[in-house]
Automatic annotation (TrEMBL):
This is DUF2470 domain-containing protein. SUPFAM superfamilies: FMN-binding split barrel. It comes from Nonomuraea mangrovi. InterPro entries: Haem_oxidase_HugZ-like_sf.
Length: 240
C-alpha cells in the first residue's frame, strides 16, 4: 500500500525549509531573531551588535523556533512550529554566503551584506547557526521529538519547490475547480476549499472557515517528477 503522507522526518525537514526563524531563547530569555534554515535544516541567524549572541566566542545552548505558515487569500495561517534545540556557533566564512542567501529568502536585510563584507569584524553583524541537539515539532494535531540524526539525515521533499509553485497557482486561479473536484470525491459540498499541502505522496485540502478540516488525498503511486505531480493533482481538479 502506498504511503498516504511523507515520512515524518521528511515532512519536518520540508516544513523547516519553508520556515522563518520566529524566536530565539537563550538561558531561558526570549529574544527576537532574524533567520531561517539552511540546506541541511540547521537554523542560521543574523545577529547584530548589541544582541545577546553577538559576543559569542564559544558554544551557547539555545533554541530557535521556526514557524511555517500558509497564505490563503489575504490571511496568513500557521502550518507548523519547529523548535530546534542545540548549540550556537559561528558560520564558517566559506559557508557564510549560503547562510545569508537562506535568510534573505525570508528577510531582505541589508545587515546580511554587511555580515558578509565585514566578516570577522567585531563591529559587524554576525552569522550564526545551530549545531542541532534535538527537534520538537507541532504541526496540526501532531507533536513529538526527533533526535539530531533523525532530523539531519532526512531530506526535504525533492518536489517541494515545484509543489509550492503549483499550490500557489491553484489557490490563486483554480479554487472553483478544486472545490468542485473535492465535492465530487467526497460526495458533499466542499465549502471554502484551499489547497493546504502538496507533496510527492498526495495533497491535503483545507475545507471550511470557522472550523476548518484537513482532508488528505493520497496519490496511487508517489509522484517522481513535477509533471507527475501536476498530473496527479489534475485528477482531483477534474474528477467527474
Amino acid at each position: 500500500m502506498p504511503l498516504a503522507a511523507p515520512p515524518l522526518p521528511e515532512r519536518i525537514r520540508t516544513l523547516a525549509a519553508t520556515s522563518r526563524a520566529a524566536q530565539l531563547v537563550v538561558d531561558g530569555v526570549r529574544c527576537p531573531v532574524s533567520g531561517a534554515a539552511d540546506s541541511r535544516g540547521r537554523p542560521v541567524l543574523l545577529v547584530r551588535p548589541g544582541e545577546v549572541l553577538h559576543g559569542l566566542r564559544g558554544d551557547a545552548v539555545v533554541s530557535v523556533s521556526l514557524a511555517a505558515t500558509r497564505r490563503l487569500g489575504e490571511v496568513e495561517h500557521p502550518r507548523g512550529l519547529i523548535e530546534v534545540q542545540g548549540w550556537a556557533e559561528a558560520v564558517p566564512e566559506d559557508e557564510a554566503r549560503e547562510a545569508a542567501v537562506a535568510i534573505s529568502a525570508h528577510s531582505a536585510d541589508e545587515g546580511l551584506f554587511e555580515a558578509l563584507e565585514r566578516y570577522g569584524s567585531p563591529e559587524a553583524p554576525r552569522l550564526l547557526r545551530l549545531d542541532v541537539g534535538q527537534v520538537v515539532y507541532l504541526t496540526g494535531e501532531e507533536s513529538g521529538t526527533l533526535d539530531a540524526d533523525e532530523y539531519l539525515d532526512a531530506s526535504p521533499d525533492p518536489l517541494a519547490e515545484v509543489a509550492e509553485q503549483v499550490l500557489a497557482h491553484v489557490n490563486g486561479s483554480h479554487r472553483p475547480q478544486l472545490a468542485a473536484g473535492v465535492g465530487r470525491l467526497l460526495g458533499l459540498p466542499a465549502e471554502s476549499a484551499w489547497l493546504w499541502e502538496l507533496d510527492r505522496y498526495g495533497a491535503t485540502v483545507r475545507l471550511g472557515d470557522d472550523d476548518p478540516a484537513l482532508v488528505r488525498f493520497p496519490w496511487p503511486v508517489p509522484a517522481g517528477t513535477g509533471l507527475c505531480l501536476e498530473t496527479a493533482l489534475r485528477a482531483i481538479l477534474c474528477t467527474c
